[in-house]
Amino acid sequence: MSSFETITIDVQSIKVTVRKKGSGPPLLFLHGAFGYEGWPTFLDLLSEHYTVYAPIHPGFLESEGIEKINDLYDLVLFNLDLVDCLALNDPHIVGHYFEAMVAAEIASVCSHNIGKLVMANPAGFWIDDDPGLDYFIVPDNEIRKHLLAHPEDSRYSDIFPEIDDESEQDQRSIDKVKALSTVAKFLWPVPDKGLSKRISRIRCETLVITSECDPIVPVSHGEKASSLIGNSIHMTLSEVGHLALLEDPETFAASIVDFLR
C-alpha cells in the first residue's frame, strides 16, 4: 500500500483526520458513502500531478463529530472551514456520491475560491422514472453486486472482501452503521435536497462523471446535473459500477487529470 502523510486538524472544534500526498496544485478529495482504507490507487495516481488532501468525513472510520453538523448547510460551511484550516488556495475539488453533492453545494456558493469541480457518481437528484437504487435497504451480502460492475471478478476481491476474523467483522459492521447513518442524515429519505435550484450558480468548470453499470446513481442523473451547470462536461465510464474509482482507478484518475489540465 502506498505511503501517505496523516495530519489531524481542528475544524469547528471537530478533530478531522486528513490524508495527504503529492506535490503541485491542491486537490481536495471528498469521499462518498464508503470510506477508503489507506491510500487507494486512484488517489496515488492523482498525487502524481497534485497535492491531494483526503479528509475522513466526520462519522466515518476514526473521524468523529457528526453530531455537531445538523444539516446540509452546516456541512457546506464545515467543508469551507476545512479548506481554510488547510490553507488551500483555489483547490480543485473532487467529490464522490454524497460528497459530490456537497462539493456542488460548496461551488454554488463559493465558485470564486475553487479551481475546477469534479462530481463523480453524484447524489442529490431525483428523476421520477429513474430514481436509482436505495442502497440503505440493501442487505450486507448483496452490497458488492450493487457497487461493482463485476463483483465476482477476482481482480476486485480486495474491495469489500470476505472477512473470517470475528472481531474484524464486528468492526466492519460498526463502520458501516456509522457510515450509513451519516449519509442518511443528509440524503434520506429522498436525496433531492434542492441542489437543482442552486446548481446553476456554479461558475467554475465542472466535470460530471457517471458509470455505465451504476444502479445507485443512474447515468440520467449525471446528464441532469451537467445540463444545469453552464460550463460543464458529462462523461460516462464503461464497464464499471458505482465504485468506478476503485474498479478502474487508472481510467477514473486519467479522466480527472485530463480535465484539470
From TrEMBL:
Gene3D superfamilies assigned: alpha/beta hydrolase
Membrane-crossing residue ranges in chain numbering: none
GO cellular component, one term: membrane
Signal peptide range: none
Boundaries of every AB hydrolase-1 domain copy: 27-254
SUPFAM superfamilies: alpha/beta-Hydrolases
Pfam families: Abhydrolase_6
Protein name listed in UniProt: AB hydrolase-1 domain-containing protein
